[in-house]
Amino acid sequence: MHRPLALHEEFMLLALSEDDGTVVASESIEVPLASAILAELLLRRRIELDPGKPGKRIVRAIDTAPVDDPILDDALRKIAKSKRDRPLTSWVETVSGSKDLKHRVAGRLADRGILRADEGKVLLLFTRKTYPEIDPEPEQRIIRRFRDAIFSDSEDVDPRDGVLIALARQTGLLQKKFAAEELASRNDRLAAIADGALTAHAAKEVTEAMDTALFIAVMVPILFD
To answer: I need a labelling partner for 69 at 20 to 30 A (CA). Which of 76, 171, 183, 184 fits?
Structure first.
């Protein structure tokens, strides 16, 4: 039996065009990918957050045993070896800057036969890697879970789905998977999911950290140009 996909792998599936394998997210994909990686470690109880202000809670490693995922293990190792306390926002930035993060995640999905790794030239100068989908079922399962979570009135949403829905909503991916009218009718429900009211608070913590990291990524070059 195949292992379940991790949050960052599921987010990557949502973020790639099924046809040409390019990223369709409205924001840089590395920051939400990093957020998903840290959420995965939170939900696996490998890291924890100290009490503090939203988005600024200190991250601590509590179980450093390998998790058999090189991307998660790399992030966990960095947190465990850090010589100073750092908040979640800082770790989102650090993990998002990991070398070839997008391609490493997509490559894992290609190894499992879900995506195909293609490489071609752009303007005869630049090499571009793309990852068209060759097995649609894993993404279709995610969409079915989303539909169950968003369009039901259940008071108990799976924390993993809550985090993934919140990330997809923040990056405009949710709007690419469902009709605008459908989502508009469930705005209150979506807000409750992202706020952690219907899930573990990991969803709220991670999306708040991602919001801050995205703001920094966009504004710092403008302010100091």
So the answer is: 171
By CB atoms closer than 10 A (0-12, 13-18, 19+), residue 67 is: middle
Confidence band, pLDDT 50/70/90 cuts, at residue 89: confident
Dihedrals phi, psi of 122, to nearest 5 degrees: -110, 125
* Chain center to CA of 132: 19
Q: Which residues touch 34 (CB under 8 Å, ≥6 apart)?
A: 75, 91, 92, 93, 94, 95, 96, 98, 101, 210, 213
CATH of 7-217, one of 3.30.450.40, 1.20.1250.20, 1.10.3630.10, 3.40.50.720: 1.10.3630.10
Structure-model confidence comparison of residues 192 and 150, the more confident one: 150
- What's the pLDDT tens digit per position in 97-116? 999 999 999 999 999 999 99
Q: 117: closest CA among 99, 97, 134?
A: 134
Residue burial 103-136, b: 16+ Cβ < 10 Å; e: rest: ebbbbbbbeeebbeeeeeeeeeeeeebbbbbeee
Q: Length of the chain in residues, anyone?
A: 225
Could you tell me where the beta strands, DSSP code E, fall in the chain? Answer: 47-49, 59-61, 118-122, 126-130
What is the distance between the alpha carbons of residues 219 and 213, in angstroms, rounded to a whole number? 10
Residue 8: pLDDT band with limits 50, 70, 90: very high
pLDDT given for residue 201 in this prediction: 58
